[in-house]
Amino acid sequence: MIELFQEYGQSYLYSDGAGLSGLAMTLWLFIVTTLFGFVLSLPLALARVSRKCWLRWPVEFYTFVFRGTPLYIQLLICYTGLYSLEVVRDTALLDQFFRNALNCTLLAFVLNTCAYTVEIFAGAIRNIPHGEIEAAHAYGLHGWRLNLFVVLPAALRRSLPVYSNELILMLHATSLAFTATVADILKVARDANAATFLTFQAFGIAAVLYMLLSFALVGLFRLAERRWMRFLVPARG
């Protein structure tokens, strides 16, 4: 264990000047993926529950594809599959984008978590009591104002418990980044194991780091639920 920390402790936790540490890279992947996935999912969730077929069906197809196939396959398609297409190699912008392993990893992660988040938020939108919508109409809120000031805030609050599970699963899914040679926690653990043959210690440290990050997320969401879901708690007589 001491040997492992001496040789690879810096790679797990600290930057060595050549790039991010494994922990920092995992956090960076998670934060960027979550941010883009969350922003993209909001308009797509509204389209998912729209009565207009031309809005609803493309989003439904997108979520069906990305929820119905493994993230690992999606990552491989983004990392190696798309670059094998001649049209991608012949287009300067696409060629530059898909040459970068980190770009491919982020693309796969964002598309995957966005698909799940869309369905979470769409389900929360459907479960908003009709009385709240009628009250908003009575105040003169319609169209985008209704969605922005009533529908989305109410849906986001109600979806907190389910959304927290999706973020924890996404945090764990970032461990697939090693497939694209991205130096995250698992990549560092694999390198440490290959060099020292201390398998239990190498992957044990990685497991502890992922567990600590998961507990931190659970704690943050519990605080958020206490603050923003207080209105759902039945009043005591």
Explain what you see.
By secondary structure, the chain is mostly helical. It has one domain: MetI-like (MetI-like fold, Orthogonal Bundle), CATH 1.10.3720. It has 12 helices and no strands. The protein has helices at residues 2-13, 22-48, 53-68, 71-81, 86-90, 92-99, 101-126, 130-138, 143-158, 160-173, 185-196, 199-228. α7 (101-126) packs antiparallel against α10 (160-173) and α10 runs antiparallel to α12 (199-228). It is flat and about 65 Å long. The model has no long low-confidence stretch (mean pLDDT 86).
What are the key terms here?
single chain; 237 residues; mainly alpha; MetI-like fold; 0% strand
What's the structural blueprint in terms of helices and strands?
Layout: H1 2-13, H2 22-48, H3 53-68, H4 71-81, H5 86-90, H6 92-99, H7 101-126, H8 130-138, H9 143-158, H10 160-173, H11 185-196, H12 199-228
Helix pairs in contact: 1-11, 2-3, 2-7, 2-11, 3-7, 4-7, 7-9, 7-10, 10-12, 11-12
- Which structural class do the helices and strands define? mainly alpha
- Helical content band: over 70%
- Compute the CA-based radius of gyration: 21 Å
Per CATH, the class reads Mainly Alpha
Largest sheet: none
How many distinct folded domains? Answer: 1
Proportion of strand residues: under 5%
What oligomeric arrangement do these chains adopt? single chain
* CATH-derived architecture: Orthogonal Bundle
Domain ABC transmembrane type-1: 23-221
Membrane topology: Multi-pass membrane protein
GO molecular function, one term: transmembrane transporter activity
Organism: Pseudomonas brassicae
